[in-house]
Amino acid sequence: MQEKMLVTSQVAKQLGISVATLRKYSSEIEQVTGNHMYFVRNNKQSRMYTPQNVRLLQTVLTLINQKKLPYKEAISQLFEVHASDKMPQVNKVNSSYNMIDAKQVVQLLGMLQKTIEQQNVAISGLKAQMEQLSQQNSQLLIDLNSKKDKEVDPKILAMPDISGVEPINSSESAETIHEEILRKARENQQKHPNITMHRTLADMQLKDKHHWWDPLLKFIQK
Q1: Looking at the DSSP assignment, which residues form a beta bridge with residue 47?
Q2: CA separation for the pair 38, 78 (Å, rounded)
Q3: Among residues 63, 85, 107, which one ends one of the domains?
Q4: If we measure between CA atoms, which residue out of 203, 190, 191 comes closest to residue 159?
Q5: What pLDDT does 158 receive?
Q6: N or C: which end of the chain has fewer CB within 10 A?
Q7: Residue 47 belongs to what H/E stretch?
Q8: DSSP codes of every residue in 79-103
């Protein structure tokens, strides 16, 4: 419900003062508050007064009459009291907002720190995995190189161990040379039974037309 507005003459009559005195008090209030629109104005720019305005002016008159204060001082004191009553409320509200903001900031900082710690743990785990993979790769390279060094030509592995054979006399027959080689191969096999032989002694027996040792014999007789 809209408050009833009173014109200057009505308020002056209600307060028991002249219209000129009311205008003087109203003008001083506007000057002290720094608000020239403190009182509502109508279309003719005349002041209109709310019931709250009337009560305020009644308080001004009480200070003037009872405490014998000049009207300017009475109005200044009255609005200083009003200002001091409002300021703590404003500060309290601002303080409440500041406290809320501070709590939120602390919570956000805590969450941020926790997130950073989790990321650091994850990064450390990734670094450890990378180091482990690097070590495994290095070991694989070493194993591959070692295996490569140990690989022997299959043709060499297929040859019997005839180390220690005496120099062959070219005047001896092929059968004699074969028997000497076969004897030495048997002897070496008995000395080193754990060595895998890709050719057995049976493979070294003489066969018709072609013999396994023919290329070797030709090489020795050169």
Answers
A1: 41
A2: 15
A3: 85
A4: 203
A5: 54
A6: N
A7: strand 47-49
A8: HHHHHHHHHHHHHHHHHHHHHHHHH
Q: What contacts 205, CB < 8 A, 6 or more positions away? A: none
Per-residue pLDDT tens, the chain, 222 aa: give them: 567 899 999 999 999 999 999 999 999 999 999 998 999 999 999 999 999 999 999 999 999 999 899 999 999 988 886 655 544 444 444 444 444 566 667 767 777 777 788 888 778 776 777 777 778 878 888 877 776 555 655 655 556 566 666 665 656 666 777 777 778 778 877 776 665 544 555 555 545 555 666 666 666 666
Q: Is 136 within the bounds of a domain?
A: no
* 116 domain-assigned: no
pLDDT of amino acid 97? 44
Q: Domain containing 25 — which CATH number?
A: 1.10.1660.10
Could you give the CA distance from residue 58 to residue 61 in angstroms, rounded to a whole number?
Answer: 5
Q: Is 141 exposed, middle or buried (0-12, 13-18, 19+ CB in 10 A)?
A: exposed
User: Which range marks the domain in which residue 161 is found?
Assistant: 156-221
Instruction: State the pLDDT at residue 96.
Output: 46
Residue 168 lies in a domain: yes
CA distance 97 to 63: 38
Buried/exposed code over 165-194 (b: 16+ C-beta within 10 A; e: otherwise)? beeeeeeeeeeebbebbbebbeebeeeeee
CA distances from 96 to 89, 92, 93, 100, 103 (A): 10, 6, 5, 6, 11
13: in domain: yes
Instruction: Please tell me the total count of domains within the chain.
Output: 2
